[in-house]
């Protein structure tokens, strides 16, 4: 089960880059690694879709829903980088000297899109937030989330919405520590979905 979570963007969202564990879970620190590893956050481009697709699969495995992933690299290229994109993305990248044993330098990402609240107006929805396990605990996840918040504010949004699995206590605690509100717990809202054959039936006149 997942919980709906919201963060009021009018309240201060501290952009500290190296402060807290990554919101997708924590891993034991590698004693040989630097706590404050160099990294950069930048807008995703179409050339990043291969790595984003890879990390989407990794995230789905972490969340124990790998069988649900249908999106391909080609889907990302078409849906995120066409004339009217369905989503936007940012990636976290490390220098060559910190690349993974497989040679990856793109080690985290966030996907987001703009939405609207009939109560408060413009909003931004964060679909995914992920950092590879060996790079967690270095402030990269916080930096990604802070960037989405900054982009939302720049677009005139006043809230950041997202979901978190109910068993993922490290993530839930992290989000709450950033001033987010558990909408499921506080207001009783549940995240609903209609898909596949049910969506086809619903669309019938």
Order of helices and strands: EEHHEEEHEHEHH
Strand arrangement across the biggest beta sheet? 2-3-4-5-6-1-7
Helix content: 25-40%
| Total E-strand runs | 7
Overall morphology = globular
Named CATH architecture = 3-Layer(aba) Sandwich
Mean pLDDT over the full residue set: 87
Structural class: alpha+beta
Q: Under the CATH scheme, which class?
A: Alpha Beta
First-last Cα distance: 32 Å
Fill in the CATH topology. Answer: Aminopeptidase
Describe the sheet with the most strands: 7 strands, mixed
What does the radius of gyration come to?
17 Å
Q: What is the total number of structural domains?
A: 1
Q: How much beta, percentage-wise?
A: 15-25%
Given the structure, what is the number of helices? 6
Provide structural commentary:
The structure is a single chain. This protein is of the alpha+beta class and 205 residues long. The chain contains 6 helices and 7 strands, in the order ββααβββαβαβαα. The chain has a 7-stranded mixed beta sheet with strand order 2-3-4-5-6-1-7, sandwiched between helices. Helix 1 (49-62) packs across helix 2 (73-80). The longest helix has 15 residues, at 140-154.
């Amino acid at each position: 089960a997942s919980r709906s979570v919201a963060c009021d963007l009018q309240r201060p969202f501290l952009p500290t880059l190296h402060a807290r564990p990554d919101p997708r879970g924590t891993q034991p620190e590698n004693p040989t690694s630097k706590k404050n590893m160099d990294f950069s956050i930048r807008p995703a481009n179409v050339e990043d879709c291969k790595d984003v697709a890879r990390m989407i699969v990794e995230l789905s495995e972490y969340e124990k829903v790998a069988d649900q992933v249908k999106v391909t690299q080609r889907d990302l290229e078409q849906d995120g980088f066409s004339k009217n994109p369905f989503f936007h993305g940012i990636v976290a990248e490390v220098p060559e000297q910190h690349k993974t044993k497989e040679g990856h330098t793109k080690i985290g990402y966030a996907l987001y899109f703009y939405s609207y609240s009939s109560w408060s107006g413009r909003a931004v929805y964060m679909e995914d937030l992920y950092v590879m396990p060996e790079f967690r605990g270095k402030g990269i996840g916080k930096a990604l989330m802070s960037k989405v918040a900054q982009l939302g504010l720049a677009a005139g949004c006043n809230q950041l919405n997202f979901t978190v699995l109910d068993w993922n206590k490290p993530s839930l605690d992290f989000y709450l520590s950033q001033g987010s509100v558990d909408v499921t717990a506080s207001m009783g809202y549940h995240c609903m979905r209609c898909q596949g054959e049910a969506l086809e039936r619903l669309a019938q006149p």
